[in-house]
Amino acid sequence: MEIKKHYKLYKDGKNWCAMALAVAAVSAGLVLGNTNVKADTPVDNVPVVKTTNPTTGDANAELASQEKAAQAKDNGNYGYLDSAQVVNNNDLHVSGWQATNQAAGKENRYLVAYDSTTNTELGRTSVTGNVARPDVAKAYPDVVNAKDSGYQATMNNLDWSKVKSVDDQIHIVSRYSDAANGEGNHVDNWSQPINLDRGNYAYLDNFSVANNQLQVSGWNATNQALGKTNHYVILFDRTTGREIARNKIEATERPDVAKVYPQVINAKASGFNTAFSLAGIDFNHELQIISRYSDAANGEGNRVDYWFAPKKFMSGNTSNQGNLDSFNLSNGQLTVSGWHATDYSQIENNHYLILFDNTNKTQVKTIKVANVTRPDVAKVYPNVQTAGQSGFDVNFGSVVLIPNHSYSIVSRYSTLDGGNGDNRQSKYTDWWSAPITLNQQASYIDSFTKTDSGYSVKGWMASDQSINKPNAYLILLNNGQEVARTKVELTDRPDVAKVYPSIYNSQKSGFNGEFKVDPAKVNGTLKVIMRFAGDDANQNYSDQYSHDYLVNDAGNLITVETINNINASPLYTVDVYSGSDDSIISDSYAQGVIVKATQGTYYVNPKCNHQYNLAKQEGKLTGLYHYAGGGNPVTEAQYFINSIKNYVGQSILILDWEQGQNPAWGNTNWARQFVDEVHRLTNVWPLIYVQESALNQVANCANDCGLWVAKYPSMNWHSWTVPDMNVNSGAFKQITGWQYTGDDRDRSIFYLNKEEWMKLANPSEV
Fold first, then answer.
1. CA triplet 522, 523, 527: central angle to 5 degrees?
2. Kind and range of the H or E element at 136?
3. 28-50 pLDDT per residue, tens
4. Which pTM was predicted?
5. Strands 737-742 and 707-710, bridge-based pairing
6. Opening angle at CA 707, ends 704 and 709, nearest 5
């Protein structure tokens, strides 16, 4: 270290002389906390010596004589502040020296911290032990107290609230006084100004959404907060450049910060923990927290700010999609399953399902749910981070429903933990299912036989009207006139519940009734009415009808053709997918095989070529179908045709329009766009496979496409015998094909001959 010589003037007789005092080179000011200024001789190991006073008159006289003689030679007042450091966030540790013969008779020694900017004393500390300073004694041989002029003390009683700014000029005054309190006659030596640490230190521990609030915690420690007693935390929208809100802070203790930043006076009480309402916050914007110390009550005025790094809760993907896979009322309770995928769920992490009555515009019931895994959704929506945990499977239990009312399931992600996730302060994201109207019904007569006392009828009946019409009746009509009726207790039919899960109480739909009537007194046409009534008087009811049964004059049943006009040369088919056994393709009863080719734009049946070639080897007619994935219909059509382009013209083409894994279910224009693109690419109009209850979703394709409709008498119909039941064609002129079994294997009848089949496959060649 470079050595500088400080020249001090002293008086030798009548002449002023200069004495060189060598000290280490230092800056003009003392920076607290990091820089220590010391004399040239280290003082850390210099012993502290107590000043002793002579006890005899002769000693006092001798000392006074020595001091008088010395003062005659040097009456200067010398001193230096070697170091000053804030410690423990409040105390000031100082060391230095003051040597002067003017200290004679002033045995009380003090250090005073003084703010000369505000002319305010911050506190004083008594020096009880002097530090030996042989370096000072060497420099000032004519100053009696030079040899023990050093001091080293911690000033722990300072009032920092009197300091109005970190820029205030703070001095250490070294004082010798003849008064015990440091007043009276005294001689002072003022140090150079002390420069406090000006750093602005901070950290944001937490910035997250919880309990329907934006929770913010952290700390901000800085000596620039001196004189600024109002601490605010401000929420700032960086995207719009506007302040959203500010909270005044009651400081919290942060001993960890105090330990790391002992030179910062407010470090011990630098913590903050506050929360902001979510009102006015846009999670798609960049948000920023500002910690502010101000001398004004409103947080303005003179202030010092710390701007924390901005944060954006949303990554930019604001998509919001979902699907209702099932709406099950089969056991009289409502069970729903599906998925709702959006990255807003990372913030709005409370998931609710709401049953909403669209007709009355009221919420029927709300349930908070736990999400279930949906790897299929994650595969389709890889850019949605939460897609893999987007599923729900919920039982609403018994709910009050009204027939003919329209209902939707609302999936809601909310910041609010309670209620239905909705209040003025909460943020939430909703997905609404397509409306479901409770106006469905279905029935079937499994058997109608003559008995000795009348007729026995077995079958099932299910209707949404049974919600408020719980009494089940069977009524027998003969040529349109009632001849008998019986009240029945409905029994379990799990097969019906599986096929018609969305019809109320379809699980309890089976009946076994007896009509007491003299068969000899009936003839012509018999028909069974299946009625749900609100009371035993049958004043409020809903009916379904069987087809006609012909009887002769003796009441015996006459075999009739099915209600559908079956082509004289129908074709029987099976349809297969990757999980189907080859034996289904080889079924001797099947004249045609329809193979699943693709799904969405992400799946090709790995067994498609094998199954297709096996069907050809067996001499069967062939078809290929695409399972709608609910994405872009034009893109899916192109994906389908590109995958089976070698088979176009040899097989009929089919769009499989189903609810499962199809987020576009309910969209009445999706199928139209798909078939238009297939026709543009191939000049072939594909058939449309759809369940009878969803014919309205594909109605706008009726003028161009054939209909392959699905409707089963039960899941136990394991037979090639075509069931005797009505099948609706909706807007289509006729039914091209009817899939009537779907349990052990999918069996269908197509009202075509081979030539007509091939014309559908390749209109230009036939």
1. 85
2. helix 134-139
3. 233 333 333 232 333 333 333 33
4. 0.58
5. parallel
6. 160
